[in-house]
Amino acid sequence: MLRRPLAVLAALTALATTAAVAAPASAVLPDHRAPVSLLSSTFGPGYSPGLTADSTADSVYGEHGDPGVDVLTYNLDLRYASSSRTLSGTALLHLRATRTAAQIHLDLAHAMSVSSVKVGALDAASTHDGNDLVITSPVSQDQTYDVAITYSGKPGTLRSPSSRVDLPRVGWHTEANGWVWTVQEPYGASTWYPANELVADKAIYSVQLNVPDKWVGISNGTMTRAHVGTRTITRFTNVHPMPAYLTTVAIGDYRKTTQTGPHGLPMTYWYPKGRSELTQPLKTLPKAMTWLEGKLGPYPFERVGVVLTPGSIAAAGTPTMITFGANNFGYGNRDVREQLVHQLIHAWYGGTVTPSDWRDLWMNEGMATYLQARYSTHMGWKPWQHWSREFNRNDPYWREIYGPPGAYFRTQFNQRNVSYCSARMLLRLRNIIGATRFDRAMRTWPQTHLDSSRNRTGYVSWLEGKTGKELSKFFATELNDAKPTL
């Protein structure tokens, strides 16, 4: 999902502090808190309640997140002061304990200072050691709790677990002019709010951003906006659950333009003031979406958005609001269009169906890369021979330096092995089960597992049931073998 592994190959080879007091948010915009009633609705045929007592820590980044916590909703009320680069706010989490415990564990960067914690109506003690926020409050298995955390500080970034040069650090990035953009994958959300950074934990988000006047705060979801004194307040509500790594925030002097996609789909593009030319290649997204829906079925979210963040070549397929670094335009408009299609594909593979463990990142990146290649060929940009050659010729090399796509080295997150090697695997799978069955499975998998978290065992079992073929040995070899099959 991150932007440009080619850059890694090249590297290998060569709130204003004096603002007036704002009126209470409730006096300006309707209550933005995600209603608990949403939790009982059926998001999609694949939706499941979330983590269970048998859930375990992530096999790759187990130091982040806690399987004992199943966050159901996040309600973030945040205020940003551009002059001091400080963020303050309250995070209200409605969570379920998957097991009985004496404490609640969350992730929050040490740069953020916690001033108060409440569990229900009661104050709760907490400790904050490194990135671990531990709240002293006993919880019982399968019981739900409201946890309110008030905090502030100067958010920053964490070192990315990868040698990729397009995003050496993850989390909250502040530019020299005070603008902000964020990319969380795989565990940067805790740099700016208390989160359960477990990829398997999907929750419904509601985010309010209070920023300097003439600026705007941008996030995932449906927006409402108001101006109060010298501040701009935006609220973003979501109706589909997502893991912490798929949240996004951008703050700055942005302008927007809109389009209508297939079947009336709202499409919103945010660009830095004075840079409207950047939206030119985005105007082809409705046609791209029509092509993708023909391959993958109906788009699984209620809107499409793109925020063009200055000073970055990072990109992430964050649901309803793709985060896309404006510096990518230096590679040309055709490249931008191709990369945006890659990020759109993540709505199906990564957004609505999310890996339940980071070891299965290939489930996101393999399909996104495979279909990106198909789209490039469909548009006449690169012949299929180019992509087939690219997928095959360096497969042994990527596996050697980064590890197999399903067992990559934990210090080499989201490298070319999980994208190109996995796309090659999908091509081989297509030859084994036949083009018709493959194309049907590619479309049916996300449509029958909407709003869920899945792993390779479930995917392979499902695929075997759909095709009548034994595929476990094939996947085990392709995902875990250091040497590729011929």
- Tell me the distance between the termini: 27 Å
Strand order of the largest sheet: 5-4-8-2-1-12-15-14
Strand content: 25-35%
Which architecture of the largest domain would the CATH scheme give at its second level?
Answer: Sandwich
CATH class of the largest domain: Mainly Beta
Contiguous uncertain segments of 5+ residues:
3-27, 36-43
E-strand count: 23
> What is the name of the CATH superfamily of the largest domain?
tricorn interacting facor f3 domain
Overall mean pLDDT: 92
Helix content: 10-25%
Main beta sheet strand tally, sense and closure: 8 strands, mixed
Structure description:
The protein is an alpha+beta fold and 486 residues long. The chain folds into two domains: 5-255, Immunoglobulin-like, CATH 2.60.40; 353-480, Orthogonal Bundle (Neutral Protease, domain 2). The chain has ten helices and 23 strands. The chain has helices spanning 5-13, 285-296, 333-345, 362-378, 384-393, 395-402, 416-433, 435-447, 456-467, 472-480; strands at 69-81, 86-97, 101-107, 112-119, 122-123, 125-129, 132-139, 144-153, 157-159, 169-174, 180-183, 204-212, 216-219, 222-228, 231-237, 249-252, 254-260, 266-272, 304-309, 315-316, 322-325, 353-355, 452-454. The strands form five sheets. The protein has an eight-stranded mixed beta sheet, with no helix packed on it. It has a five-stranded antiparallel beta sheet with strand order 9-10-11-16-13, with no helix packed on it. Helix 5 (384-393) packs across helix 7, helix 7 crosses helix 8 and helix 7 packs antiparallel against helix 10. It starts with a helix and ends in a 6-residue tail after the last helix.
